[in-house]
Structures are given as C-alpha cells and as structure tokens.
Amino acid sequence: MKRVIVISTSLRKGSNSDMLADQFVKGAKAAGHEVEKISLVGKNIQFCKGCLGCQKLGRCVINDDVNDIMAKVLQADVICWATPIYYYEMSGQMKTLIDRMNAMYEQDYHFREIYLLTTAAENETETPKRAEIGLTGWIDCYPKSHLAGHLFCGGVNDAREIEGNTKLQEAFELGEKI
Question: What is the CATH number of domain 3-177?
C-alpha cells in the first residue's frame, strides 16, 4: 500500500481536470492505496516573498494553508498533480503552490512517483508540454523522484465537458497501476 496525495489545482466547479483527478483517486483506492485528494478551492495560498526563511526554518514563514499541504506531500509515496492548461502552461495556482513548497528542498521526502493530469480546450499534442516541463523542473529538485506518468485530455473547455470521454477511464487505470 502506498500513500497517495492528489492535488487538484483548478478553482472552477465541475472542472475537467478535477474530474480526471477524481478518477485517478478511484483507481488508486481500488488498488488498495491510501489516497487523499487536496483541492485548492478555498485554500489560502499566498505568493512566495523570496525571503528564503523557509530554508532555515524548514517551513514557510507565511501563515496560510501551504505548510499543511507540504507536510502531507513530504509523507506521501506518490504525488499526482491535476491542472487545467491556461495559455499553454499549468494553472497559476499550481505554480504558486510549487514556488511556496521551496521549504521542502532541504527536507527528507518519501515521494518517488509523480503523475500529471492535464486538460485544455486546445487538442494539439504540444498543448501540455510547457506544463510538463514546468513540473519536471520541480521534480528535478528531488532526485529520488521521477515523472511516472502524464495524461492529457484536450478538446474540453466548458465545465464537465469531459463527461463520457475515454480519458476518464484512462485516469482510473493510471491510478490503479501505481
């Protein structure tokens, strides 16, 4: 059994990326893993101030929801990020969270497998590439970990437009395989 954290970064109700995240969760639970989904909806996540106080304290000096999220991420075996693609890049709230998790850099971490679930209105194969490159920049700071899988569903723009799409089953199967 692995400890799995799924971080859903969309703030839109009924978002397509959140629906992929839910299927990944179901698949991982079906495989017997301990899974927690963290939605950024309603979370207080401020911008990094660049003070580097986190490097001395092992936590961020800003008192918001990030330190609790980081504690869970550090203890997880598997991390799955789910994000809509905005202007060919990960969501701003995902990038802000990644920046704020700088306090993890010097700490011991358990995660080895990282997954990425992305959705976009555009359906070209290049559409999710920048988001993947951005996430692998974070992963590179944790050399014991690697990008274990990336699932992209293009051609979905409106809320819940992904319903009935085969990518939902693929997200379930991806979660089930971890």
Answer: 3.40.50.360
